[in-house]
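hey team, just a heads up i'm posting the complex here instead of the shared drive bc the drive is being weird again. everything in one block, sequence lines first with there labels, then the predicted structure for the whole assembly after. its two chains so it's a bit long, scroll down
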Amino acid sequence: DGGITQSPKYLFRKEGQNVTLSCEQNLNHDAMYWYRQDPGQGLRLIYYSQIVNDFQKGDIAEGYSVSREKKESFPLTVTSAQKNPTAFYLCATPKPGTVTGELFFGEGSRLTVL
Amino acid sequence: AQKVTQAQTEISVVEKEDVTLDCVYETRDTTYYLFWYKQPPSGELVFLIRRNSFDEQNEISGRYSWNFQKSTSSFNFTITASQVVDSAVYFCALSEVTGGYNKLIFGAGTRLAVHP
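-- predicted structure starts here --
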């Protein structure tokens, strides 16, 4: 089945450690996005990539880094510089050819900092 | 600035009741899109509907219906005869075109609990 796979589903990290969240898609889509979700808040955009080897900061990029070396992969690293990293992280890719906004999402990764 | 407000944080209903989820938006764009997404307990958001700013016709899809009113900047979502499987968090979103990228502004979400 085509879709987006995020791993791990749950992750625990000690303060001061970097952690990388995986996002893989087999939909052959060019664009991929990372969102952060906090309780009682909407999704906020961390980084987005419109094409391989290119990515842009979203609204809350501080303390995060990404790479886009392959079309199907868009890993997100949560660095020790991120002040409050405990959150639910969602990877998404837009449906090609649509004017805007119809996104396919992965099932998310829940990061807890101990 | 673009903004989406979902004033209802949580709604609890009994199965077969009708329920309306409110969404109010702010934008200075004349062309924009509005969306509803469903987030079931599994976590992934599922696209439900997209509506452009020039189409104010209401839409019905099975038990779901959407009421778009530009005069009040609202895009409300009604579930008729709710079922337990409708229990989820529902997000309303507004598109914004910035730097050639179509960005979504999400509301805070409404958690719907449907009880048997």
